[in-house]
Each structure stands twice: as structure tokens, then as C-alpha cells.
Design a protein that fits this description.
The complex is a heterodimer of chains A (about 160) and B (about 300). Chain A has about 160 residues and is α+β, with helices and mostly antiparallel strands. Chain A is built from 5 helices and 5 strands. Chain A has a 5-stranded mixed β-sheet, with helices on one face. In chain A, helix 2 crosses helix 5. The radius of gyration of chain A is 15 Å and the shape is globular. Chain A starts with a strand and ends in a 7-residue tail after the last helix. Chain B is of the alpha+beta class. Helix content of chain B is about 35%, strand content about 25%. In chain B, the strands form 4 sheets. Chain B has a 5-stranded antiparallel β-sheet with strand order 4-5-10-6-7. A 4-stranded antiparallel β-sheet of chain B has the order 11-12-13-14. In chain B, helix 9 packs antiparallel against helix 10. The chains are: A alpha+beta (about 160), B alpha+beta (about 300). At the A-B interface, strand 4 of A face helix 2 and helix 6 of B.
């Protein structure tokens, strides 16, 4: 069974015919070519498929694409503006918060949702906000430091 | 890990959802947040022919105080909404605590209160708080609505009294007769994405003379269903505790451990779980009492 939907991703509308059993992760990656959203465990445990739906971070592997219609979806590709990285992306680079990079898009989007809601979180709030995103390189400390730095305006030295 | 194929329905009214449920019976499954259903479908534990999504129905996401001061919580309210709601945090912190410990922030943005109850897991994070708050479920079927206490809802793991053509539309949380406070503690080995080894919620109400007019203690993950430890509550009902460390709270905690019926599995042994029921019951009673004292 297929359904016609309009998906709003990174500010752009896409008219699509999607099989109803396709997840938002699959449609983003395979139909729209937005492979920044990673497909990891596929069961909501790892957070590598994190996207923002109406500003809230969700596991896109557990959202049917047809259910995302009407929501504003933000993926990692939508963060940079005019070729300029988002302050969180800059901070991740500067603080060595990226090792293999697989968890990075999800980490950054979860962090963005946190900073949009709470611009000055403490380390505990950052760790809680990122607790659904696993980093198997286990580089958590640098990730937390990068988010702290971005929260302070990205001005601290790495 | 692909989802099996299914027909997708997105009714816009509860009545339409009920008639579809009636028509398709066992071949249909209701989709709310999907954090449980879609995982089970990917793992091939479930393969419904039809998915009936509740997400296009208006009015199931509302949370409001209604006539007489009861709180009505729509079944599609997410765990994150419960955990962050000022209405919930001010009036029934114990529910915000349970919701705040469910899954991860990502899961909490999708998982719904209705889904958490209908899936009926023994270690549910929302059932113990709702049990101690004496919440009622409103089940809507083709013939109208009926109300059921949460304590009467669960039959076994994954089994409830909801009928095939009914939709859980909202939860009603009664206004307390006296000032009340509760607390929820979840024991796990990690702080996120954890299935409780044991969880406990306690709730107390107190009259002006310092006597406890209402005591409820609910235990999770230590029986086939989350349940109210009635005999533990009886130990302190009507008493006037002298402080948060009153020996009566210890006595109630010991009784709760006797009421638990835990099993041994890879998450913990029955003996360990029983011992932890006593510890957590004491701590939740103490925390609830301290919170109560802070407001009266």
C-alpha cells in the first residue's frame, strides 16, 4: 500500500508516494538522499537516526513516514546556513567530539533541541538530553564539552 | 530490519477508529506513539494486516483540569509532555517522575500514556504512579464510554481488559480530598533506556491533624502486573507519622516486600527484587512525606 504525502524537510516540501511501511529514516536516506541521518539499531535504542520533528528530537526509525506529514522535519543537512556550519557543528569539530562520526548527527540534533529550550544547561542536563544517543567510540566527555562550549557562544578554546 | 507490509488507516474521529477496530478485529493494531508496536513488528513478533493510527484524531492530546478539579489527560499525551507539564508537576509530581524515567528523551517525545498502559508491561514506568493516584481509564467503544480503575485494567503481561473495538481515549485523575504528595523511584543499571528491575510509587494524603487519610503504594516489575500493595498501605493509614523516618514507614516497607511476588531473571533474582522493594518503598514513603510537609 502506498500513500501520497508531502514531507517538509529542512524547510523544503517534497511530494512523495511512499509505501506505508517505510520509516522516516528510510525515506530520508533512500528517497531524499539525506544520508546524514544514520540507520543504526533500527529499534530506538541507539539514537543515530535522530531528527527533529517540530523541534523535538525523535528516533526516525520508529516513525512511519506517512505519520510525519504535516510536521517540520530537521535533519543534520538542514543545520548549516549558506555554507556556514551551525555553532554546535563548529564546537564538535573544535573540541574533538567526533571520532567515527556515526553518532554525530544524532548527538548534534539532540543537543540543538536542548539548547533551543535551555540555552545554558549544566553538564548533567546535557548528559540527560543526550542519554538516548549512544557513542560506541565512547567519546562522551568531549561531546559534553562541545555542547557546553556551544552553549557559551562557541567562544571557549578547545 | 524492515517493517512487514500493512494497510494504514488514519481515522479522524474516535467513532471511526472504533468502527474500523470492530470491522478488522484481531487483524488490526492501534498505533499511538509506535515505540513499542513498531519495534515488535520489526522483530516479527507482530504482523497486523492493518494499522489504525490514532494520530489524526483531534482532542486526544489535551491535558486539562475539568469540573470538580479532576485532571483529564488525553491518551496521546507523550511521556515528555507529562514530565514537563507544569500542571502535572505542580499537582502530581509522582506522574512526572515516572514519565521522566521512561526510555530516553527521544522515546519520551513519541511514547504515549495510552500506549504505555495498553501494552501492559510489568515494568511500566507510568502504571505505578497512575495506580497510586487512583486514576481511571476512559475506554470508548461503539456503544459509548466506560470507566475503569487502572487497578482493574491489567490482567497479565500484555493483557488488559480493553475490548477489541475500544480505544483508550483519556485518563481521569481525581482531585485529592486532602493535600497529597507522592514519589516514584526506578531501580535499573543505567539511567536511560532501562527496563526497571523494580519500581515503586508511593502517595500520601494528610489531614490538618497530621493523620494520613490516604496511603497508596504501587509495585512494578515484581509480579505479572503492576499492583497496589494494599496491606502495606493499611499499616500506616490513619497514623500520624512523627517525621520522615518514622518506624511506621519501615514497617510498611517490610510488608510491601512480603506482598511482592517477584521472579528471578537476567535482570535480577527474586530475593534481590524483594529486598529492593523494601528499600524503595521506604524511600518513596519518606520522600512523599517530606514533600507533603513542604506544602502543609
Amino acid at each position: 500500500m502506498k500513500k501520497a504525502i508531502t514531507l517538509k524537510v529542512n524547510g523544503r516540501d517534497y511530494d512523495l508516494m511512499v509505501p506505508t511501511n517505510r520509516t522516516l529514516t528510510q525515506v530520508l536516506r533512500e528517497d531524499l538522499g539525506l544520508t546524514g541521518t544514520k540507520q543504526g539499531c533500527e529499534t530506538g535504542d541507539c539514537g543515530s537516526c535522530t531528527v527533529l520533528m517540530d523541534g523535538k528530537p525523535v528516533n526516525s526509525c520508529l516513525v512511519l513516514a506517512v505519520e510525519a506529514e504535516g510536521c517540520a522535519i530537521l535533519t543534520i543537512e538542514g543545520l548549516a546556513e549558506d555554507g556556514k556550519l551551525h555553532p554546535l557543528q563548529e564546537a564538535f569539530v573544535r573540541h574533538g567530539a567526533i571520532q567515527c562520526g556515526f553518532c554525530t548527527p544524532g548527538m548534534i540534533l539532540s543537543a540543538k533541541a536542548l539548547l533551543d529550550r535551555n540555552p545554558f544547561p549544566d553538564a548533567k542536563e546535557i548528559r540527560t538530553a543526550l542519554s538516548g544517543n549512544l557513542c560506541r567510540c565512547t567519546g562522551y566527555q568531549k561531546i559534553v564539552e562541545a555542547v557546553e562550549a556551544a552553549a557559551q557562544g562557541g567562544k571557549t578554546d578547545g | 530490519m524492515l517493517l512487514p507490509r500493512f494497510q494504514y488507516e488514519a481515522p479522524v474521529t474516535v467513532a471511526e477508529a472504533c468502527s474500523q477496530l470492530k470491522e478488522y478485529g484481531d487483524k488490526a493494531k492501534v498505533l499511538a506513539g509506535g515505540t513499542d508496536l513498531l519495534v515488535n513488528m520489526k522483530k516479527k513478533l507482530l504482523a497486523p494486516e492493518r494499522i489504525i493510527s490514532l494520530n489524526r484524531i483531534e482532542g486526544l492530546k489535551e491535558m486539562e483540569a475539568v469540573d470538580g478539579g479532576d485532571l483529564a489527560v488525553g491518551s496521546l499525551c507523550t511521556a515528555a509532555e507529562l514530565a514537563d507539564s507544569s500542571l502535572i508537576r505542580e499537582r502530581i509530581m509522582v506522574l512526572a517522575e515516572g514519565a521522566g524515567r521512561l526510555g530516553s528523551p527521544l522515546i519520551r517525545n513519541r511514547a504515549t500514556i495510552g500506549g504505555n498502559l495498553v501494552t501492559a508491561r510489568p515494568a511500566s514506568d507510568l502504571a505505578p504512579p497512575l495506580l497510586v493516584l487512583d486514576a481511571r481509564l476512559v475506554l470508548t467503544g461503539p456503544e459509548g464510554e466506560r470507566k475503569l480503575a487502572v487497578s482493574d485494567f491489567f490482567l497479565g503481561p500484555g493483557q488488559t481488559r480493553i475490548r477489541g473495538d475500544e480505544v483508550l481515549t483519556r485518563l481521569m485523575i481525581p482531585k485529592a480530598a486532602h493535600p497529597g504528595a507522592g514519589a516514584y523511584i526506578k531501580l535499573g543499571t543505567r539511567k536511560a533506556m532501562e527496563i526497571s528491575i523494580v519500581n515503586v510509587a508511593s502517595y500520601l494524603e494528610m489531614a490538618g491533624d497530621g493523620s494520613l487519610t490516604q496511603v497508596r503504594i504501587a509495585l512494578g516489575a515484581v509480579a505479572p502486573v503492576p499492583f497496589l500493595a494494599a496491606s502495606a498501605s493499611q499499616k500506616i493509614l490513619g497514623a500520624r507519622p512523627k517525621g520522615p523516618e518514622d518506624p511506621l514507614f519501615r514497617e510498611a516497607a517490610r510488608e510491601a516486600a512480603r506482598e511482592a511476588k517477584p521472579i528471578s531473571d537476567h535482570r535480577g533474582s527474586a530475593e534481590y527484587r524483594r529486598a529492593m522493594v523494601e528499600v524503595l518503598t521506604y524511600r518513596t514513603l519518606k520522600a512523599a512525606y517530606e514533600r507533603l510537609r513542604a506544602v502543609i
